[in-house]
Amino acid sequence: MRDRQAAQQARRAREFQAFVAGAAGRLLHAATLLTGERPDANPRARALLTAALASTYASWDRLRGEDPYDRTRTVLVVRFARGAWRRSRGRGGLLARLSPQERLVVVLRLYEGVAEEQTAALLGLGVERVRVLCARAVAAVLHPPRGPAPGVSGLPAAPGGHPGAPLGKAASS
After folding, report:
1. pTM of the model
2. How far, in Å, CA of 103 to CA of 75, rounded?
3. How remote is the C-alpha of 92 from its chain's centroid?
4. DSSP code of 165?
5. Measured between alpha carbons, how far is 97 from 68 in angstroms, rounded to an integer?
6. Using one digit for the tens of pLDDT, what is the confidence trace for 66-123?
7. What is the mean pLDDT of residues 60-71?
8. What's the CA gap between 159 and 172, in Å, rounded?
9. In whole angstroms, what is the distance from residue 120 CA to residue 132 CA?
10. Helices 43-58 and 2-35: angle between axes, nearest 10 degrees
11. φ/ψ of residue 53, rounded to 5
């Protein structure tokens, strides 16, 4: 009995190690995108992934044909959405300027390739809401907001006598 349990645990450990070796890089990248951290400085993403992998390992024997990658991705997303991860903004990553909900939608839809319907069901949103969030997030990433006009307050005094006066109009004497 003990030998059988030991053999089963060893098999389980080997299977899980093989899964992690193949999937951890992509899952870490997804977690990094979710947390909005830079790829070279992503402690929150690593902690999020570790928790998701621990959950997957705990249920490894009960997966019964379920894709462990999908399971881990779901746990990752749910932990991000429900946890302290969403309370803070990203720190310089590609998606840092997006809200946590927008990051969730973008990562699931565009990085992971999850269908709109599945994304909506996973996040508890309507399909149209997922569509709007995705479009808004993509627009924000592709067309970031511009800062204030350069040098408005630092303009030299125009011939009219005050900053911002039309440059082509000279003050009449």
Report:
1. 0.70
2. 16
3. 12
4. S
5. 31
6. 899 999 999 999 899 887 555 555 567 778 888 888 999 999 999 899 999 999 998 8
7. 89
8. 10
9. 11
10. 150
11. -65, -35
